[in-house]
Amino acid sequence: QQQVKQSPQSLIVQKGGISIINCAYENTAFDYFPWYQQFPGKGPALLIAIRPDVSEKKEGRFTISFNKSAKQFSLHIMDSQPGDSATYFCAASMQGSYIPTFGRGTSLIVHP
Amino acid sequence: DGGITQSPKYLFRKEGQNVTLSCEQNLNHDAMYWYRQDPGQGLRLIYYSQIVNDFQKGDIAEGYSVSREKKESFPLTVTSAQKNPTAFYLCASSLGQASETQYFGPGTRLLVL
Q1: For the segment B84-93, what is each residue's pLDDT rounded down to a tens digit?
Q2: Average pLDDT value for residue range B48-73
Q3: What per-residue string of b and e applies to A29-53 under the rule 16 or more CB within 10 Å gives b?
Q4: Residue B107 touches partner A, C-beta closer than 8 Å
Q5: Which residue from A112, A109, A99, A88 is spatially nearest to A12, judged by alpha carbons?
Q6: Which of B109, B98, B105, B107 minimizes the C-alpha distance to B26?
Q7: pLDDT in the model for residue B3
Q8: How distant is the Cα of B104 from the closest Cα of chain A, in angstroms?
Q9: Average pLDDT over residues A76-89
Q10: Chain B (19-78) residues lying within 8 Å, Cβ to Cβ, of chain A
Q11: Given this model, what pLDDT does residue B98 score?
Q12: Region A45-54: what's the mean pLDDT?
């Protein structure tokens, strides 16, 4: 019930391509879905987040697509750049809980 | 600058030794967290604290201890009972129950000599 399944585990994309990372959840009480970006040797930082009242949120080259009926959400990175090479974590949380549930992470490498 | 600081950046532990990782935040956040990160295993919750003088075990609390005597500080002790302590340790904070975004520190890498 509390799992968030993230795929793929690793992803290699050419510069200028589209990177897509997917997450699926089971608990329909989740109402906040953030994505975190982590560079090697650093702590994760919030990249973009969405709530289930919208199906898509875009910030620059980063877009979250949310499918409430399928209980899935995904991160799209348009025009991927070598500087986007990092580990990306999806997460889900709900009102009344202090504890987010994290996916296992996706290691993205963007080749120049 | 507001944020979370962790020290030291690298820490070496000898067999049978307890070591303490520091975490300080000046964001005026109520909730603080400790996570352990191992390659391919994502973020695993060790302990969390909702308010001062209160803390709860996470998924992998065995071999660890914490205290929360001040709002801005949440130190983690890795005890000798933790047989496999080599990992990247991340401290995080959030406003509290009403806010779900977590703000992470830069991490401490613990290595066993």
Answers
A1: 999 999 999 9
A2: 96
A3: ebebbbbbbbeeebbbeebbbbeee
A4: yes
A5: A109
A6: B105
A7: 93
A8: 6
A9: 98
A10: 31, 40-43, 45, 48, 50, 58
A11: 57
A12: 94
pLDDT of residue B100: 78
For residue B88, give the chain A residue with the closest CA: A41
CA distances from A75 to A2, A37, A84, A109, B113 (A): 20, 11, 13, 15, 40
Cβ contacts below 8 Å, chain A against chain B, sum to: 54
Cα separation, A48 vs A106, whole angstroms: 16
Q: Which of B90, B94, B96 lies nearest to residue A43, judging by beta carbons?
A: B90
Mean pLDDT of chain B: 92
The CA distance from A111 to A47, in Å, is 21
